[in-house]
Amino acid sequence: MVAVLEIEGLRKTYRSRRRGERRALDGFDMVVEAGQVHGFLGPNGSGKTTTLRTLLGLIRPNGGRMAILGQEVPANLPAVVGKVGAIVESPQFFPHFSAQDTLSLLADAGNLSQQRVPEVLEVVGLRDRAKERVKTYSLGMKQRLAVASALLKNPQLLILDEPANGLDPGGIREMRDLMRDLSASGMTVLLSSHILGEVQQICDSVTIISLGRRVAAGPVAEVLAQHSSGGLRVRLESSADLPAAAQVLVASGVRVDIQPDHLLVSGVDKPSSVTRMLAGRDLYVSELAPITVDLESVFLELTGTAPVAGQHRQVDQSAEVPA
Prior knowledge:
Elements (H helix, E strand, L loop, with lengths): L2 E14 L3 E14 L3 E5 L6 H8 L7 E6 L2 E3 L3 H4 L3 E4 L11 H11 L6 H8 L15 H13 L5 E5 L7 H16 L3 E5 L3 H7 L2 E6 L2 E7 H7 L5 E5 L5 H10 L3 E4 L4 E4 L4 H9 L5 E6 L4 H9 L20
Parallel strand pairs: 3-8, 3-9, 6-7, 7-8
Antiparallel strand pairs: 1-2, 1-4, 4-5, 9-10, 11-13, 11-14, 12-13
Helix pairs in contact: 3-4, 4-5
C-alpha cells in the first residue's frame, strides 16, 4: 500500500537550565498507509504531541526525515498543507463567535467554499447549535467544533489528537463511526488517543511510542497476537478438583498455573485434548476458553506503565527501549 505518512529517525532535543537536556524524540519511526485509521499511542510525555507538532512544521526537529503524501516536510509543507487537516492538543476558539462564524472565518482564511461550513456542522452534530456562542459550549461540543474545523478542507490526511476528549458515551460512539466512514471514503486518519478500547475497535494499525522511541508497530491484530500467550483458561465443575487436574496435565507435559477458581494452561496444541485428558480421570471441564490480550494490557506492558501497588509512577517513568 502507498504510505501517506513516513517518519524515519526523527530526533528532537529540548534544553533548559533547570532540567538540562531532554530527548523528546530519539530516532522515532512511523509509517501510515493510505486509507487506514492508524492509532498513535504513548504515555504522557512519550513524544506523541512533539511528533505531531514537528510533522506540521510547528517545531523544528534536530534530525531525521519526514514525508507527507510523498513530499518531504517541512521543506515542502506549503505544497501539502492544503491536503492535511489537524487538531493538536486543546484547540482554542474566539469565545464570542458562534460555531458557524468560526468555521466561516476559517473557510475564508483557507480559500475554501462556504458550502463546507453547514456540511461539516452536520457531520459533527452541531447543526442545531451552530449559531450559539462558543463560550456557551461544553468541552465535548468544543471538541466537535475542532473536528469540524479539521474537516473543512476535506483533507486526504486527517490528524486528530485526542478527538474524544470531553465527549459523552454517545459522542464517543459517533466519533468512532465518523472515523470509520472517513476511512471508507478514502481518507487516511492518524488518531492519537488514550482510550485504548476505542483505538482497538477503530484502528487498522497502531504505532506505540515510549520515551521518544517506537516500541511496537503494525496491524492491531498482529500486535496483539505477538503478545498473546496462546494459553487457555480451564474451569472445572468443582474447584476442589483443580490440584488433581493440574497433576494430570503436568504429567502430560502441559504447563499449568493454578488460580483460586481456574487453571491457566499453556503449551497445548489442541484445546480439545485438555478435555479428553481430564475426562479420562473423571474430571469434567465446565469452561475452556482461550486467554486473549487487549490493547490496553499490551500497551502497559510495552511502555512499562502498569500500576504497581504502593507506588506512584511519575510522568517520565516509562520503559527504556534499546537504541
